[in-house]
Amino acid sequence: MTNRERDSLYSQEVANMGITGNKEFERYAVVTGANKGIGLETVRQLAMSGVMVVLTARNEKRGTEALASLHESGLSNVVFHQLDVQNPDSIASLVEFVKTQFGRLDILVNNAGASGVIVDEDGLRALNIDPALWLSGKATNLVQNVIKTTNEKAEECLNINYYGCKNVTEALLPLLQLSISGANIVNVSSLRGELWRIPKEQVRKELEDIDTLTEEKIDRILESFVHDLRQNALEANGWQKMLPAYSISKATLNAYTRVLAKKYPNMRINCVHPGYVNTDINWHTGPLTVEEGAQGSVMLALLPEGGPTGCYFDRTQVAEF
Ligand SMILES: NC(=O)c1ccc[n+]([C@@H]2O[C@H](COP(=O)([O-])OP(=O)(O)OC[C@H]3O[C@@H](n4cnc5c(N)ncnc54)[C@H](OP(=O)(O)O)[C@@H]3O)[C@@H](O)[C@H]2O)c1
Predict the structure, then answer these.
(1) Which residue spans adopt a coiled-coil conformation according to this UniProt entry (predicted)?
(2) Ligand 1 centre and the CA of 37: distance in Å?
(3) Dihedral sign for Cα atoms in the order 62, 67, 71, 75
């Protein structure tokens, strides 16, 4: 099916639901990476609160199956559109869809994410690591034999978690600026991106100095990470040993959130660690449910005018970057 044919099908779906131009919906939302895990649950909770949600997924079959599960549970105010955050054509197609169907966007939840590693899942399970040890960073040496960073996975991780999020946001900004009460953007981050975890002092300092931080500076940090990755010199040059690409992708995502929040003071733009949640991304090692994991994203997606912006949340509480 061509992109044009697919879009006409999605538009027909919206028309059949009588949603276009329907003022019943005060808010329109897009959630990325929403075919499963925290993203799917975020869509469910937003739809439950009366928001009209576009559930997006890179894989059409997985996305439409997720949509069907929500429709079966009685939630009709959810539609599907394909979105691979790494693909510019796919992003453009989503923007066109939101523009023609809704004319604006009120909420963007950048949830899609990848771990940047290859894992021996049986080996990891056999280690039976306690969640507290896992989160403290002290499990790093324990997992070295079962969690491997490859250049391909690491670069893909940056492209999804950082550049994918940034490209989707930038493409949707003109529609977010049309939101009547100021749009809400939620960047789903991780505690792995907290600054105190970055051994490299210069990077830590650059990312925390919000007065001098720019998108160009963030790009340069990622370029230097990729340089060291390709030279097989990550640890030697002070990057995190545990999930190095994932960690820097989330640290830079947090930094981007702050830069963007300064640039668009009429919006509420925040990032959130969802908690340690039982999903595919951590090979089901997390103790929290997806219902608990989506609470932070949903709270930030629904923040009213005058709410916090440029902040990092640990679930529903403001925390240190
Ligand atoms: N679970 C945790 O404990 C935890 C902790 C901290 C942060 N997070 C963050 O929470 C977010 C959601 O993760 P999760 O725990 O729900 O994991 P998950 O179940 O593995 O979900 C990840 C989602 O991202 C999608 N995705 C990956 N690459 C994509 C791309 N190029 N374009 C569009 N979608 C893409 C996946 O789609 P496919 O099914 O097609 O792969 C999937 O829908 C991520 O940003 C993650 O970093 C999770």
Answers:
(1) none
(2) 7
(3) positive
